[in-house]
């Protein structure tokens, strides 16, 4: 029960390996969105409580909408707090966010020379960043999207 903790989001890997977890409550927090596949390892999940959060039902919620339709778990109502035209609607009842969300197939955009990588993205002050951990080199690169050159450029390198 991770309730009423003013939680705004969680790591994509927060519940990794918890295959025997049957009940999870994230109720009454400040969650606006959850990272894609955050519940992927929860194979035994019976009940999920997401009440009392302020979910943004935009493209970031599309995966959750699809997951709600496919899970066998009982999930509380996921009520949208925004955007304005979605306010008060239940994500559980929606059939599509396709009109608002555009997706494309993966295409190689930029290559990084490294053998073993762990990659994650994040936004900060309306900019997009990518972190690339390369355990074999004991470093973590942080790349920032360059809107002019249209590629990621080195922002920082943490050893």
UniProtKB/TrEMBL annotation:
This is Leucine-rich repeat LGI member 2. InterPro entries: Cys-rich_flank_reg_C, EAR, EPTP, Leu-rich_rpt, LGI_related, LRR_dom_sf. Keywords: Glycoprotein, Leucine-rich repeat, Repeat, Signal. It comes from the Eukaryota. Residues 53-102 form the LRRCT domain. It holds the Pfam family LRR_8. The keyword Lipoprotein does not apply.
């Amino acid at each position: 029960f991770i309730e009423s903790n003013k939680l705004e989001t969680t790591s994509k890997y927060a519940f990794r390996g918890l295959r025997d977890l049957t009940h999870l409550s994230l109720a009454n927090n400040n969650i606006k969105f959850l990272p894609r596949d955050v519940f992927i390892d929860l194979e035994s999940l019976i009940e999920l409580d997401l009440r009392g959060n302020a979910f943004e039902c935009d493209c970031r919620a599309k995966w959750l909408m699809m997951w709600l339709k496919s899970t066998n778990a009982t999930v509380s109502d996921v009520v949208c707090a925004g955007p304005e035209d979605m306010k008060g609607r239940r994500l559980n009842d929606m059939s599509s966010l396709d009109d608002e969300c555009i997706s494309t197939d993966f295409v190689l955009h930029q290559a990084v020379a490294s053998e073993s990588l762990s990659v994650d993205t994040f936004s900060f002050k309306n900019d997009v960043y990518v972190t690339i951990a390369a355990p074999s080199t004991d470093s973590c690169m942080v790349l920032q999207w360059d809107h002019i050159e249209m590629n990621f450029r080195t922002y920082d390198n943490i050893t």
